Amino acid sequence: MSEYLRTALDLATEGVPVLPLRAGKLPFGNCPACRDNACGGRPNMKTAGTCACPAPCHGWAAATTDPDVINSGIWRRPWAQASAIAYHPGAAWLTVVDLDNTDAIAWARKNLPATQTVPTTRGEHWIYQGPMQSANAVRPGVDIKSSMSYARWLGPGTGTMSALPDVVQALPVKERPTPSRGSVVGSVPVSVGGQCRHRAPAYLERGIAMAEQRITEAKSGVHTTVYRVFLAVLSTHGRCGCLTETHVQRLFLAAQAKGESARHCTVAWANARTALGV
Length: 278
Prior knowledge:
The protein is an alpha+beta fold and 278 residues long. Helix content is 35%, strand content 16%. It has helices at residues 3-13, 67-70, 73-81, 102-111, 166-169, 201-216, 222-237, 245-257, 262-276, and strands at residues 18-22, 26-27, 84-87, 94-99, 116-119, 124-129, 135-139, 142-145, 151-152, 162-163, 183-184, 188-189. The strands form three sheets. Strands 4, 5, 6, 7, 8 and 10 form a six-stranded mixed sheet that branches. Strands 2-1-3-9 form a four-stranded antiparallel sheet. A two-stranded antiparallel ribbon has the order 11-12. Helix 7 crosses helix 9 (262-276). The longest helix is centred in the last third of the chain and has 16 residues, at 201-216.
């Protein structure tokens, strides 16, 4: 077992979703069709990229805490050739402020609350407790890596981790979507308003019941299954305003019965909404 694989399994037991990186800090494709990132390294989503893989397989979408997936045959070669380990901060309920040079570090020390810090090749990672939307170049030398992004694992660092502050959440130039309806656990928005295209409430009920069943019957890769189910539900029902807190709670409870935490459910739901733009 390689040192990277051993470390990855240790991180997974702590609830940190991991994936191997090849030379150049780039992800591997984890299916034969995407060997050496033949499809361009895009997650398999209806709204992004051209990858035709049966499951998300690149970058942040490949990160997992499932030891059976991490140690599976399809990952054996990538872990043997890995040059680094990456993790999905948002799914671990974290935000990484990536400071790329000494000027960026000086700015952070002046403007951001002290938190856990990890040295990087050229700068530092400042890690806060709580997820947010990722964004690049929010100011010179500063990137934010959280939901739908990956960061290199460079060790535990030093210092005490602080809660994600408002000043970091305000850094992205682009505005984040504002929910227009209710919320569920973790203040995750349910859906946006719009004209319902469903002919009867039974259509929605059947869809939620099928989604619950799919999660319940998952034999492995539960984290990925939950995310894909959330994507499917939101792609069908996320724009018309039909979803209620009760519907979403049913999905969360099904996921938690399979071992998912409420925190991971909240992040997966938020990531699915962002991916679909709802």
